[in-house]
Amino acid sequence: MKAALISLGSESSKWIAKAMKKYFEDVDEINLKNIEIDLSHKELEILYKGDPLGEYDCVYERGSFKYEPVLKSIAVALSETTYIPIQPAAFYLGHDKLLTQLELQKHNIPMPKTYLTPTLGSTKAILEKINYPIIMKFPAGTGGKGVMYAESLPAASSILDALTALKQPFIIQEYIETEGVDTRAIVAGDTVVAAMKRKAVKGEKRSNIHAGGVGEACVLDRYTKKIAIETAKIIGAEICAVDILEGAKGPMVIEINLSPGLQGITKATKIDVADKMAKYLYKRTKEITEKGKKKVASEILEDLDILKPGKLKEIITTLDFRGNRILLPELVTNVSKFDEKKEVIINIDKGNLSVRESEIGREKEKKK
Ligand SMILES: Nc1ncnc2c1ncn2[C@@H]1O[C@H](COP(=O)(O)OP(=O)(O)O)[C@@H](O)[C@H]1O
Ligand SMILES: [Mg+2]
Prior knowledge:
The protein is α+β, with helices and mostly antiparallel strands. It has twelve helices and 19 strands.
């Protein structure tokens, strides 16, 4: 299988390309700056160094918000024929913090209260009624550079004057007290492959590594993990970083990063994050290219009657462990139809384990 990594050639992108080469037969490293989108003919054409871009099974695009129109156009052009982990819409949703929030809010992902105002007058009105401290930030900043902290109305007013003079659009956000700590989760599909807490340097509110923040490996609780994975899914970015603040009201997403830097998190967690991403890309590409050729496993199982209810199914297998916990095969979830909300009774003895739905749980469900 053939893959391409389109990027600005950062160190992190080089790591990912190198890791991809372990899995894919062919990996082309393409510099985004040498790409041209040609719309002069009937169909959109992507040119690389003046020639049409080759054909790939997988194209992973990285690059900053400045390149959003090109990144998005490439994704649109390829989406029908090629596996792309970042959907076209993700490029405009993910590169704008306000649009990210609008989209996530529709799906009840917790986020800090945020305001956007069209005029100076309405901004002043918000600043007068809001609780302090607050954060004012550019919708498309990165590395903490567009984030300003105001602890009072006078501080906010002088920031407002400067932003107005510079004609810079910005958003106003409730400040979440976390003592300068934020959480970064790297998501690949349905898993968080690495997570770290970043602590801002003394006197600094922004915990970005670029702003001097120090990273430390951490294990996310199930709820926070779920929020990170759902955020990635909603935005349409199978591979991304999700930034979360864990304040008094629980975890809140502040942004999604479509091309996260890997140095900080690799050093902090000692996890080969580039390899995790590459492995994921390979697995998905394989799944998608093979889907065209033969039925996916679940369809085959359906044909074999194995998913039909009523009959007790027996699987002979070894058990998969995560530390001391037992991880059951996905088929168990599919056949049992258990989900997180169902109350169950677990019977355990040496060499024997069974899980059944509790009658009370079932009654509760019926009543609904
Ligand atoms: N609403 C907020 N409350 C508290 N701290 C915040 C808030 N928004 C941002 N920060 C701090 O600033 C950092 C950078 O903010 P973020 O929105 O992720 O922008 P960037 O794209 O520049 O990383 C965060 O990691 C966090 O430490
Ligand atoms: Mg951030």
